[in-house]
Amino acid sequence: MRSQTKNQVAYLSALTLLFSYIESILPRTVPFFRLGLGNIALLMSFSLPPMPFMALCAVKAAASSMMAGTLFSPFFPVSLAQSIASGFFMYAVSRLNARLGGKLLSLYGISVLGSAISAVVQIICCSLYLGRGTFTLLGAMLIFNTASGIITAFFCGKIGNPSIKKSGTICAHLAATDGSSGRWRKNRHAQMVLAVALLISAASVFFVRSIPVLVLALCLSLAAQKRCGRRILVLPHLSLWVFVIAAALLVPEGKVIMKIGSIAVTQGALVSGIQKSLRLSAASALSQCAVVLRPPKDSLLALSLLYYRALSDTFRTSEGGIFRRIQKTLGTESDDGGTNHPATETL
Description:
The protein is mostly helical. The chain is built from 14 helices and two strands. The chain has helices at 3-25, 40-43, 50-68, 75-99, 107-130, 138-159, 164-177, 180-186, 188-204, 211-227, 234-249, 267-288, 300-317, 322-330, and strands at residues 256-260, 263-266. The protein has a two-stranded antiparallel sheet. The longest helix is centred in the first third of the chain and has 25 residues, at 75-99. It is globular, with a radius of gyration of 22 Å. The chain starts with a helix and ends in a 17-residue tail after the last helix.
């Protein structure tokens, strides 16, 4: 990948992290419902060649998983699959749309299509582990993701086309003053050993069937997470357990313990749901330890994180409303305070 294209992909990957960060500080009207604002960067990137665009989709999933602490959990392959699948379909439709003179779908239609593909892939991937009961959630997810696609397209149109020039200067300064690359070279063997150890440990919990052993594994994983300086949040684990156990109970197995309305709570399904939820929680806690890992200096992922640092610092120090702060960060604000659509500096 050429240096200029690599910078473009890294910058756009950083934008997915920036928009995800902005989403995290916005009030949520629906609990556990994520708008997926990180996809705004994908809607800005259809001018990229095919391979760099698909690389963007992959780095987007890897960078967001690394920041969220899910890189060594089953959530990462799910995120990677839905990012690549939805990105591929949106890119293909956008190219076809361009050949037809924009008569096929608007940006809103492409965004909604990508959100729908993402929901379907996510449900299919989850069903491989949680069982066919997850398909009962597909209708609700499609409704939520349709709204998400509309909101994402609205944000994209409101923000304007980002310029890499301003942030590229900041990023170059950060690269010159950042000492993490030197620390990575010095401790690269330790970094690699830790990454392999986390991957093996996270994978091994899925071969354990004993609930007491899984509880112990979860406690040790949470202790490791705390030791790495990552705060332990209880609510995500509780919501995960509720979702996994509910999905398991939708597929009856074994002796009926009780009935909740028309749903029969069976012993086998309950035990299976508890096992699966404990495994996911333990793997997620271990994955949080990846916060101490640093990618190699010249990698696309490292450059993406460096751009994100520059963008997020600028966003946090900017003043004004949410859209104006984003426009200032991306260099899309015109002199009169409106939205600038640069013709020569766009990505």
